[in-house]
């Protein structure tokens, strides 16, 4: 009996020691990750820098195979690259009538996509366009500057007012939940969400979450509510990557001049008149 008790005693001690070691290792890993995450002087995660999504979400948020692009004469240059999708559950939960509108959008995407017309992309599309964007962070406010169309938005961290008017980039109010920046976006114009015709109306509410995983990666997610289009709220997720090359910065992309022919070409005088 004494041997059995002694064995049970040591087994218990071993279990306790193993649990304590596991806890210490977990705490050490968490502390190491926190130490590797840049911080502002006030201790908040430091998002300052130039970031970019590296995926096919702007072509189509949902899983999709490679397809011919809207301009067949461009060949492979204009083809749509395949993508695994960024939507939780794979598919966007459209209402039947809204799904039919999405399909019509897709058929007319060459001329009707707001991106082709150089309209500001709105939220969340501005995040995953094939262009970098810059985050400028202070102790009071955070500004996002986008290369595409010169779009800008300020995340108000203290101003709790509702959107005074709808606009392309909407009205963004931020708050901290631990180390995650949460941004509520309202007051958005109706807009497309990708080049495939997925869209939302001016009644949408977007909740973004930015979590700095380490010095060079942000975990981004956006939950979209729009009862005029979707049967329920849905969420997209993706990593964002810090641009690290020497001299990384936002460049000029004056897309208005690229859109003039599409928008006003039919008004050109015929040759010889």
Can you describe what's shown?
The protein has 273 residues and is of the alpha+beta class. The chain folds into 2 domains: 1-36; 49-263, no CATH class. It is 23% helix and 25% strand. It has 5 helices and 11 strands, in the order H-E-H-H-H-E-E-E-E-E-E-E-E-E-E-H. The chain has helices at 2-36, 96-107, 109-112, 125-128, 256-264; strands at residues 49-53, 133-137, 141-146, 152-156, 171-177, 180-186, 191-192, 199-200, 205-214, 217-225, 234-242. It has a 9-stranded mixed beta barrel with strand order 1-2-3-4-5-6-9-10-11. A two-stranded antiparallel sheet has the order 7-8. The protein is globular. The model is unreliable at 28-34 (pLDDT under 50).
How would you concisely characterize the structure shown here?
This protein is α+β, with helices and mostly antiparallel strands and 273 residues long. 23% of the residues lie in helices and 25% in strands. The chain has helices spanning 2-36, 96-107, 109-112, 125-128, 256-264, and strands spanning 49-53, 133-137, 141-146, 152-156, 171-177, 180-186, 191-192, 199-200, 205-214, 217-225, 234-242.
Low confidence ranges: 28-34
Mean pLDDT across residues: 89
Assembly status = single chain
Count of DSSP H/I helices:
5
Shape: globular
Taking all Cα atoms into account, the compactness measure Rg is 24 Å
Integer tally of domains: 2
The percent range for strand residues is: 15-25%
* Spatial sequence of strands, sheet with the most strands: 1-2-3-4-5-6-9-10-11
Number of strands: 11
Order of H and E elements:
HEHHHEEEEEEEEEEH
**First CA to last CA: what distance?**
112 Å
Helix content range: 10-25%
SS class: alpha+beta
Largest sheet: 9 strands, mixed, barrel
